[in-house]
């Protein structure tokens, strides 16, 4: 959803610069500021992590001052309020124009609360029929091809139920079983894997991704 907003032509006409920064679980302000600067200038190596924080902040101010920017902080897991306050204060000091916006994507409601969003959009799980359409597209590749393999379809439907409507989990496992061609044993192995027994939150995709990881070659696992 954030990507669709970010790439929309109406949004592109409204903001300059647009910045997309992948955060993940490493919320280090001294690492994030260079990423923001590079995203704004669309150039790498303008500043490195060894530069002083004072220099980074100065360059951030030069880059964003007076500009109406859109910043997407993608996949944020930081639940440390002080770290978020530090980054927010630096962005406020940069003096972006009125109307600048920050979008944060996260799977943690606590992160959303810490960010203090004006608007929180909680995405619902995919409807059941859409889950199957997405899975079948990845697993069988050709539309309606699953009708030729009713036993695989049955196994696939059981796998989809375990994904709990999470698109990334569905895509991951659909591609995984698709790589096993029409081998029923391979499909059952994925359906019955003990990885599913891991404790998980309702929208946690870790078991699905760990399952995919377990099927990688030893070289690629590194």
UniProtKB/TrEMBL annotation:
SUPFAM superfamilies according to UniProt: P-loop containing nucleoside triphosphate hydrolases
Key word Transcription present: no
UniProtKB keywords: Plant defense
Stretches assigned to the NB-ARC domain: 1-144
One function term, GO molecular function aspect: ADP binding
PANTHER family: NB-ARC DOMAIN DISEASE RESISTANCE PROTEIN, PLANT BROAD-SPECTRUM MILDEW RESISTANCE PROTEIN RPW8
Descriptive protein name: Resistance protein-like protein
Protein source organism: Arachis cardenasii
């Amino acid at each position: 959803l954030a990507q669709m907003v970010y790439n929309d032509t109406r949004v592109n006409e409204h903001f300059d610069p647009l910045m997309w920064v992948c955060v993940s679980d490493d919320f280090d302000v001294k690492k994030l500021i260079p990423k923001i600067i590079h995203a704004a200038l669309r150039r790498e190596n303008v500043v490195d992590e060894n530069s002083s924080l004072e220099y980074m902040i100065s360059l951030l101010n030069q880059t964003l001052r007076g500009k109406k920017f859109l910043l997407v902080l993608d996949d944020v897991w930081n639940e440390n309020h002080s770290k978020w306050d530090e980054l927010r204060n630096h962005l406020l000091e940069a003096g972006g124009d009125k109307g600048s916006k920050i979008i944060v994507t996260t799977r943690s409601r606590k992160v959303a609360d810490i960010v203090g969003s004006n608007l929180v959009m909680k995405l619902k799980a995919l409807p059941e029929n859409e889950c199957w359409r997405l899975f079948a597209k990845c697993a069988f590749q050709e539309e309606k091809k699953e009708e030729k393999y009713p036993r695989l379809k049955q196994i696939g439907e059981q796998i989809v139920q375990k994904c709990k409507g999470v698109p990334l989990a569905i895509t991951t496992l659909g591609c995984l079983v698709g790589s096993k061609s029409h081998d029923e044993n391979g499909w059952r192995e994925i359906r019955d894997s003990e990885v599913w027994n891991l404790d998980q939150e309702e929208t946690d995709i870790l078991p699905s991704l760990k399952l995919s990881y377990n099927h990688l070659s030893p070289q690629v696992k590194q």
